[in-house]
Structures are given as structure tokens and as C-alpha cells.
Amino acid sequence: MVLFDSPIIRLNYTPATDILVADLSNKHEFYALEVRETLKTIVEHVRHYDVRRLLMDSRKRVLVIDPLEYVSLMSEFTRALQTTRLQKLARIYTGISSREDLVQAINLQMSPTYTLRTFPSHDQALAWLAAES
After folding, report:
1. How far apart are CA 34 and CA 82, in angstroms?
2. Into how many domains does the chain fold?
3. For the chain, what is the radius of gyration of the CA atoms?
4. What pLDDT digit, counting tens, does each position of 25-42 carry?
5. 26-48: buried (b, 16+ CB within 10 Å) or exposed (e) per residue?
6. How many CB atoms lie within 10 A of CB 117?
7. Is the pLDDT at 130 greater than 70, yes or no?
8. pLDDT digits (tens, 9 = 90+) for 42-92
9. Whole domain around residue 20: which residue ranges?
10. Closest by alpha carbon to 41, among 14, 64, 15, 10?
């Protein structure tokens, strides 16, 4: 069921598996304000629907944002997700080393309350999310 749809993001929730897919994969330049609002929208829906499993796909997204501001936004997003009951977050590998390094660094530094894994494909990520653990 589509919970939210805009040119920037589409949120699709499957209640049977409790998986929310945040599709940010449209080729579109992404500026700081859009990043902040999009991440806020994701957290609001995770909280409102009490989502336990989240898949984020932003592999085609072009970020037009200062690296330090991006670190701040991602740290804020991680903290916000930790205030929800999220258990698993799967993300699709972007192939952009600076973004991948940042995700790893934030994960190590903040020790989120949920498990974060990166996958090369959408199907592998969904399989991991759907698996009981």
C-alpha cells in the first residue's frame, strides 16, 4: 500500500511482512532541505505505522549537498530512527564510496538500536528483511 508519493520519494508499506520501502531512486538532484524533509517523512511513517523493517533505495540519487551537512543530516536521521521500534534497516549499495564510508562511520559511531545491512540488490535486501530473526 502506497503511504506517500511525491517526485522525490515513494513509501510503500506491506503490512503482512511489516516492510516499508522508501524508494528514493529517481534520478533527481537532492538538496539539503529536500534531504531533511524526506528523512523526516520516513521517520514519521516508521513511527506512525510502527514499522519494524525498512528498506531504503537511494542508489541513483544525486546529492548536491555539503559533505559536513550530509553527515549532520544522516546522524540526525539515525538518532530519530532510534526513537522508533525499528529493528532492521536494509539499504541498497550506491557504489559511491564517500556515501558508503559515511554510512559505515555513522553506524560504528552511533551504534544504532536497529540492525543495518547494505545489499547489492533490492531482492536480497527484501529477503533479509522478511527473514525472521
Report:
1. 21
2. 1
3. 14
4. 776 677 788 889 999 999
5. eeeebeeebbbebbebbbebbee
6. 13
7. yes
8. 999 999 999 999 999 987 766 677 878 888 988 999 999 999 999 999 999
9. 2-130
10. 10
Residue 41 CA neighbour count, 13 Å, CB half: 20
CATH code where residue 87 lies: 3.30.750.24
pLDDT digits (tens, 9 = 90+) for 93-116: 988 888 788 888 888 888 899 999
Which stretches of the chain are DSSP H helices? 32-48, 67-81, 97-110, 122-130
Beta-carbon count within 10 A of 114 CB: 17
Which strands form 19-23's sheet, in the order they lie side by side? 2-5, 10-14, 19-23, 53-57, 88-92, 115-119
